[in-house]
Amino acid sequence: MRDVAIVEAPSVLGLRPTGVEELPEALLAAGLAEGLGAVRAGRVEPPAYDPERDPDSGVLNPDGIAAYSVALADAVSAVLDDGRFPVVLGGDCSVLLGNLLALRRRDRHGLLFLDGHTDFYQPSAEPAGEAASMELALATGRGPRVLADLEGRGPLVRDEDVVALGFRDSEESEAYGMQTLPSALHAMELDTVRDLGAAESARRAVGLLTGDGAGAGYWIHLDADVLDDAAMPAVDYRLPGGLTWQELETVLRTALSGGGAVGLDVAIFNPRLDPDGSLAERLTECLLRSFDGQG
Q: What share of the chain in percent tops pLDDT 90?
């Protein structure tokens, strides 16, 4: 079992205060820290939320997200400096920027991006200006400089060092005008995962992230909406289909085996849409089983 440290990152600066900010409390109440034998490495509180879209960048809370990303990167860096494995509990998907900034300060790293959406919008196409729909584009250096060039280190991850696995939003994204994924980025949409099987897809993803020139390991980003909508309805932007619980567990177990993974975040699960707590318990169980099965 890895030496895990949990960082709470309850930011909704890239979305709206809908309830995803309560994710850390829900998973901790379900026993995540105890099950992982994890230490609690602190909570990074976000600045005040501004509901007005910034006219210059076209993004909600750009300066707040930039400042928060630096603060979160500091917290994650401290965990890494202690030789521990950070598990960051969001919050919305914009927390990915702080996590990757912590890695970018150190070395070249990869990203396993597990999300029902590709989150590759530019502000001009994103209907509400939400950075939680842009974070993969921002992380690869595309978008307003205030978020795409944090600390002058952008891009935080190279296209060729990213594997996006399990997404299913292609038609919806095209309708809104989202830019297509770059050719160098490794895309494994849901149909591909189904054709290959979850185990083989995960093995290929890990191979791409740990091959020659791939850097010093990879971060795992888990958006709860990568799961089948019938299995995980407690998310804000729902789509039909998705991975089963078993498929997600298989992918995570494979990604966590060996020494390639250097950290993980969980985002978008909304406890307000889980009134009896059963989905928080199921998500926690999935995470614990995935860590327990690591090599």
A: 88
Candidates 105, 111, 99; CA nearest to 73 is 99
- Write the secondary structure of the chain as one string of H (helix), E (strand) and C (coil): CCCEEEEECCCCCCCCCCCHHHHHHHHHHCCHHHHHCCEEEEECCCCCCCCCECCCCCCECHHHHHHHHHHHHHHHHHHHHCCCEEEEECCCCCHHHHHHHHHHCCCCCEEEEECCCCCCCCCCCCCCCCHHHCHHHHHCCCCCHHHHCHHHCCCCCCHHHEEEECCCCHHHHHHHCCCCCCCCCEEECHHHHHHHCHHHHHHHHHHHHHCCCCCCCEEEEEEHHHECCCCCCCCCCCCCCCECHHHHHHHHHHHHCCCCEEEEEEECCCHHHCCCCHHHHHHHHHHHHHHHCCC
> Strand pairing partners for 165?
114, 188
Side chain identity, residue 212: D
Residue 68 is which amino acid? Y
Contact 73, 98 (CB under 8 A): yes
- Per the listing, tokens 């992380």 go with 139
Q: Is residue 170 within 8 Å of residue 189, measured between CB atoms?
A: yes
| Total-model pTM | 0.96
Residue 276 pLDDT grade (very low, low, confident, very high; cuts 50, 70, 90): very high
pLDDT digits (tens, 9 = 90+) for 125-139: 898 999 999 999 999
Taking the mean position of all CA atoms in its chain, how far away is CA 291? 17
Q: Output the average pLDDT for the chain.
A: 95
pLDDT-based confidence at 289, cuts 50/70/90?
very high
Tokens 């895309």 belong to residue? 187
pLDDT in tens, 32-52: 999 999 999 999 999 999 999
